Structures are given as structure tokens and as C-alpha cells.
Amino acid sequence: MIHSEELKDIVNPVSGKTLTEESRWTNVEKKEDKVLVEFKRDGIDPANKRKIEDQIYTALSSSYEEDNIFVKSISADSSDVAKKVDKSKPSPTQPMAQDNATLKVGHGTVGQKKRVANVDKVIAISSCKGGVGKSTFTANLALSLSRLGKKVGILDADIYGPSMPMILGKRGAKPQATEDKKIKPIEAHGVSFISFGLFIGEDDPVIWRGPMLGGVLNQFLFDVEWGSLDYLLIDLPPGTGDMQLSMVQTTEVDGAIIISTPQSVALADTRKGMKMFDQVKVPIVGMVENMSFFIPEDMPDKKYYIFGENGVKNTAKELDVKFLGEIPLQTDLRQASDSGNPFMSDEKNSSSLAFENYMKSAGEIDKILSGEKKEGFFKKLFK
After folding, report:
1. Which tens digits make up the pLDDT trace of 158-187?
2. Residue 10 · residue 18 · CB < 8 Å
3. Residue 312, SS3 per DSSP
4. CB contact at 8 A, 274 and 258
5. 110: nearest Cα among 74, 78, 155, 67
């Protein structure tokens, strides 16, 4: 029996007995200033599971920082992880069939950074500012790289606001499980992707602690059957919070692409994100300016600089970072994302400036990361 003095009084609210009495502890792993606690949650509904987690955090708070406490629960049937539902009524959050993939709420093991199996390059797509079009950019960049002959996957790491199923036209899709219980990503427009939005209803809120979010990210990285990929793009949520820290703590990330609109208020937050990557030793591949200018449909040769001009280009120059291109603000680009048919998936858009600029940015990114400029790029970063 696993024993930890701090945890001996943790009570299962369902039975009134301690988890020790019920032999529910499966692992308590301490490493430096971090601790991983794992318990069996069979028969414990989500509300009472959260009560147990709160007890664990309280019991360990005198010895560990909350962000360094990782709680993982395991169950033979994890279909009630997201929420309890009325099984007599069909709904988007109905427990999935036995061959569907399920998520285990909790954090992964405490250990060294790992590489994602069979993935050549793991690239974070980041911006500290919300509303700059990062998910739309990520989807269209993936499709642009695919047009260059690359095998690409997308990991939608925005747990609170997952939008990739909508952008890629896979609302309502449910990932299946492989024979060895790996998660099969969803295929869309020639790329594979995984998103928390595939596991919950679109209107369901997510009210979780940071370590629980890290557990989902860890599962998406290492328990998804990605196959052989040239690039895995991680669409990060805004800010420098739990998901970003979980990613850099557990995963070998090859680089970050920073996306921002041109105005100063967005760039001020973007700089914070760049400093975070610098502090955790993740190289910056370069910066992309999104919504650089507006092109009216009836005046394709006219440009309106709604958010300012050359803000990202000037910032990249100031910070000695590669400028990867500018993506215009176009009505058809927005409509394509809303309809589930991403702009870069449709050949009819190939004469558009946005299409041309996406391909230029993808080509520059691939050139930097696939070898042609690799030696000089990484030598500069790690000198």
C-alpha cells in the first residue's frame, strides 16, 4: 500500500472512508519541488472527485506550490469525466461508445521533457493577445504546409475556447480509440487534428484547475496516434499561463511562431509571450503579422491599414527576429473559417493575395526548420 503522511486523512465523500482505507492510492511520486498523486476514482462522480482533489491540494499546500502539485485520477470507465448526462436523452456530451477515445483528467508523470513520437518538428503558435486570429492562422498554415508536401498535425491546446473543430468543419466528430487505447486524431482537409472541442458540447463550460489542463495537454501530445508527421502545430491559448508552462515542462518544442496584429496594444502583450519563450529556451522561428490590412471585395487593389501599418515588421526588426510575412484581412478568409472550409483548402482562392502570402510564409517557415537555413538559425539561437 502506498503511504504518504499528508494524504492519510483524504476522505471519499461518497463512502465517508479514507482513500487509504479503500486502497485507492496507486502512485505518489515526489521529485524535487514537485509531487504527482494518482488515485482510482471508480464510482466517484465528477463533483465528489473535485472535492477529493481540493482535499489533496489543501493537504499538500504547506509543502508544495499549487502549480507543482499534479493530481491524476484513473478509472475503468472515464466516460463521466466531462460531465454527468441523462443517458436517456441523446446529446453532444453523451458518454461515448466503447471504441471511442476518452480523456483522463489529471496531470502526467513528473519527469524529463519528451519528444512526441514520430514527429519531426513540434511548433508552438502563440500570441499573448486574444482575438488576433491565431487559430485561423494555425489552420491555414497547416494547410499551406500540406500544399508543400508536408505531413501536418494540429493540436488545439485552447481548452477553454477550442475552435478548431468549427474551423476545420468537424463539429460533432468524435475521436476513436486504437486497439492499444491510443486516441485517433480526426482527419480534415489533408491534416490530422485533436481538440478538446471534440470531447465536449460546444456550449459546455470548462471549469478546471491548471494541473488538470496540463493533463489533457499531456494526453494530446503523447497518447494520440499522430503517425509520422513533419510538423505538429500547437495552437496555444492567449497568455503565458498553465497550458504554456505545461507544454514547455513536458515537451521538447522545436520553436515558436509568434502571431500578432499590427497595433501597439496587441504587440505589448505579444512581447511578454516572446520573453516567456526566451526564458524557457524555446527558439523563436519568427513573427507573422495577421490582419495587416483590409482589402475590400469591390476594390481588390485598395488597402486599408485598420490596425496600423508595419507594427509587427518593425517589432521583429527591433527584436532581431525573423519577419515571416503579413496576412491581409479579407471577408472571404473569415467566411471560410466560419463555414468549416478553411481558406487554404480551396484552390479557387489561389489568385488571392491572402493565399499567396500564406504560401510565402509557409515556405519561409519550412525553409528555416527543414534544413536549408537550419544551421545558421539554431547556431544563432544557442550561441
Report:
1. 776 678 999 999 988 888 888 888 889 999
2. yes
3. helix
4. yes
5. 67
Q: Where are the alpha helices (DSSP H) in 202-292?
A: 210-222, 242-250, 264-279
Is the model's pLDDT at 206 over the cut of 70?
no
Rounded CA separation 156/135 (Å): 8
Give residue for cell 491546446: 157
pLDDT in tens, 123-142: 999 887 777 888 999 999 99
Q: What residue has cell string 471519499?
A: 12
Which CATH class, in words, describes the domain spanning 119-157+226-382?
A: alpha beta
Q: Residue 102: what residue type?
A: T
- Please say whether the beta carbons of 328 and 357 come within 8 A: yes
Task: Give 46-96 pLDDT, tens digit per residue.
Answer: 778 888 988 998 888 888 887 778 888 887 654 444 443 333 334 333 334
Domain spans, the chain: 5-74, 119-157+226-382
pLDDT band at 375 (very low <50, low <70, confident <90, very high): very low
The pTM of the full predicted model, rounded to 2 decimals, is: 0.68
Cβ-contact 188, 169 below 8 angstroms:
yes
Q: Name the phi and psi angles at 152, rounded to 5.
A: -130, 140
Q: Which has the closest alpha carbon to 75: 35, 48, 55? A: 48
Of 251, 260, 305, the C-alpha closest to 119 is 251
Query: CA neighbours within 13 Å on the CB side: how many for 265?
Result: 4
Closest CA to 160 of 103, 90, 217: 217
